[in-house]
Amino acid sequence: GVYGAPHTLPFIGNAYLVKTDLLGQTEWAEYLAGSLQIGDIATVNNNIIVAGQSNGPFTYRGFSYGLEGHYMFIMSFDQTGDVQWLHTDAQMTGRDANISVGSEASFAVHLRQQSNQGDWVLIMDANGDVLNSKLLSATTTMVTDMAYYNGWVYLNGGFHGPAPSIMIDTIEIHRPSVEHAIFVLALNENLIATWVTVDT
Q1: Residue 9 has pLDDT above 90, yes or no
Q2: What angle do CA 165, 167, 168 make, to 5 degrees?
C-alpha cells in the first residue's frame, strides 16, 4: 500500500510491503520511499512481484532504484524481502497494472502507455525476463482486468476510439452508435487475438 500520501486520488507517495504468516502475524514490513503508485501484487515461486508507477528514483533498504522521470516498474522480492530484480520502462505506466500468474512460473502483466491510453501485455518469467509482449492498441483500448490461464491471456476492456472499428490481429471490434463497446478478448499462447465477445 501507499502511506503518507495526500487525501486525494490517485494516492502517490511512499509505499510499504507487509508479509504475514497464515495467522496474520507480521513476519516483516519494508518501505519504498519515493513518489510511487502500486498497481498490483502477486506471488510467483514464493517470490513477491509488485508492479507500479514511479515519478523518479525510490529507495528500499538503503539502496536507490529506478530512473529519473516517470516510469513503470516491475520488481521481485524474495520471502525475506530482498530484491531479486527490477524491470523498468519509461514508455509505460504501471499505475493501473494487473498481474496474473500462470503455470510454470510465468506470469502476465497488463500495462498502459504513459498517456494512460493503449494497452500492453507482457509475459514474464520468474527471473524477470520478458518472454513475449504485445501492444493491443496505442490509444483506443482501455483494459480493466486480465487473466492468464493455460498459456492464454483474457482481457476485459472497452473500445472508446473515434474510428468505427479497431483491428487486433484478425479480430475486428466495432464501435456502436451510442457509448462504447465492452469486450472480452482472448490471446493465444503467442499473444495472437483468437476470439472476442462484445457487448454494447
Answers
A1: no
A2: 140
| Cα separation, 84 vs 92, whole angstroms | 21
Separation between Cα atoms, residue 200 and residue 107, nearest integer Å: 30
Banded model confidence at residue 6, pLDDT cuts 50, 70, 90: low
- What strand order describes the sheet that includes 181-187? 141-149, 152-159, 181-187, 193-199
3-class secondary-structure state, position 182 = strand
Q: Rounded distance, CA 164 to CA 162, Å?
A: 7
Beta carbons within 10 angstroms of residue 200's beta carbon = 12
pLDDT per residue as tens digits for the range 43-58: 998 899 999 999 999 9
Q: What is the pLDDT of residues 139-166, one digit of tens each?
A: 888 899 999 999 999 999 988 778 888 9
Residue that is written with C-alpha cell 498481474 in the block: 99
d(CA 153, CA 107): 10
Please state the pTM of the whole predicted model: 0.92
**Cβ–Cβ under 8 Å, residues 165 and 190:** no
Find out whether 91 and 113 touch, Cβ atoms under 8 Å: yes
